[in-house]
């Protein structure tokens, strides 16, 4: 039988058990933002949000945006990415994308990062529905889940996450309204 100190040293240098990994993921930062936009159809907002290759045109700090792969069934993106830069930071994020318009009442765009340079977890989900109480309006919900690889970044994440989400939502709202004024969603 091993002595307690030897067992401790052995555990210190081995991979953590699988339950420890799942426990670490539970400390993911989770933010939710809901916004109402008047005089817009859900499909038009869905088209803007799912056109990931256009994000570079209107999202602050987005230096590039691209679609790497599209579904052969509906031509919607299934693999896409963003290059985000701010001061000395310049990162590329590749994501698996799922665009779902199950019916004309609810549209979903999900992105799950497959790049792990800075983030251990990065996930976003947009849900667009006809507003339940405000006629001729839509309700957009953005859910963001993330966890940095760095403990320092995780500790300060709460200081800027809500501001970043509001900036992103403002950019999408402006783009959706511009497309409405121009009479298209491209």
UniProtKB/TrEMBL annotation:
The gene is KAFR0A05180. Pfam families: Polyketide_cyc (PF03364). It comes from the Eukaryota. Residues 44-173 form the Coenzyme Q-binding protein COQ10 START domain. GO terms for cellular component: mitochondrial inner membrane. Required for the function of coenzyme Q in the respiratory chain. May serve as a chaperone or may be involved in the transport of Q6 from its site of synthesis to the catalytic sites of the respiratory complexes. GO terms for molecular function: molecular carrier activity; ubiquinone binding. This is Coenzyme Q-binding protein COQ10 START domain-containing protein. Interacts with coenzyme Q. GO terms for biological process: cellular respiration; ubiquinone biosynthetic process. InterPro entries: COQ10-like (IPR044996), COQ10_START (IPR005031), START-like_dom_sf (IPR023393). Belongs to the COQ10 family.
